[in-house]
């Protein structure tokens, strides 16, 4: 079928006739869902379904995706020679493209990856003993094709593989996870090397330039400057954080710097851990009528990059407080084992092997902060977060208005936390009927608390 109209102007007669032919093809071959079909326009990109009328309008308003030359979303069935011809097709394809693959990847990498043997073995290995319709490779290809066509997530695809693994006979060779299935189709694992370059594109720091601290052409430093707060000169070192008085990391906060000043021995070793503790109560059964309560206690490592703090593999699941009721203010009793471990890490530390320098060192850790909502804050700190003295920051209690029958306490006069020239200070009717001209109280220090 001629598809040259796809590149024609949308106001041309050729494009108009091509759209008519395409819509007729869709109507005869594509499978509809409540009279709708995938729209191949530039905006929808075969991800959104439209009825034929809207599909027609979209093709003229936005144009068709010009790279969509094989209409697989609208009834075109691709040939599946790998399924029907089995291992013969795979062997023929490998022979035809082997030289191209070796040239693109490199002979050493190709041999080291054992790519040819891996694909051939998977194409010959039956899906389960006695299976003649599918091999390990063909079944994985078929499932990945379904995943791509239907937009399955990696998580849902993994769950499907796990279910199929249980449903198939024993000793089946179906991959059990999404990553494992990818390795069947892409067994090539190539190594890479990270190379520093001069910001002015003068040289790469390799070979004779690898040990240089300054560019031999322009004289620019190989490394980023680490400036202290008292001098303008920086020390050369590995690429690190910017020191421009912006808060990009907890290490830029006054609290972090105060700890380094107060405990210089702890702060001198960047390997010592600053931990954040997060917790909250949850109902594991999702039933509000159930009184069972669970409090997971998580620890995050703030020494890491902000991109890694909340990644699952870097979060330490240290405790689970579970029972028929919430621990409330008695949560400190259940936290005793964790507190003992934290005291040990702070006071004595533990011997840890540093693989980078290949030597042992004494690791210490401290609890840098906690992450929780206001009610959980009250349980962890022991401070009252209810009633007339709920604010843990101000010296004075927040003003309040008690409604009829004493059923509700409403906290007012919070405009004092806004800038002095903020218009909310003068809004009377919107709040409690009076202007707000109070000043924020000084936060209490640790001794006062």
Helix and strand topology:
Elements: H1 13-29, E1 36-38, E2 49-51, H2 52-61, H3 81-85, H4 87-105, H5 107-113, H6 115-124, H7 136-150, H8 154-167, H9 178-185, E3 226-227, E4 234-235, H10 254-262, H11 264-268, E5 273-279, E6 293-301, E7 316-323, H12 331-334, H13 336-347, E8 350-354, E9 359-363, E10 365-371, H14 374-381, E11 400-402, E12 409-411
Parallel strand pairs: 5-10
Antiparallel strand pairs: 1-2, 3-4, 5-6, 6-7, 8-9, 11-12
Helix pairs in contact: 1-2, 4-5, 4-6
Protein name: Transposase-associated domain-containing protein
Region (Disordered): 226-245
Pfam families: Transpos_assoc, Transposase_21
Description:
Residues 3-75 form the Transposase-associated domain. Residues 226-245 are annotated as: Disordered. It comes from Vigna mungo. This is Transposase-associated domain-containing protein. The protein has 449 residues and is α+β, with helices and mostly antiparallel strands. The chain is built from 14 helices and 12 strands. The protein has a 4-stranded mixed sheet, with helices on one face. It has a two-stranded antiparallel ribbon with strand order 1-2. The longest helix is centred in the first third of the chain and has 19 residues, at 87-105. The protein is extended. The termini are far apart.
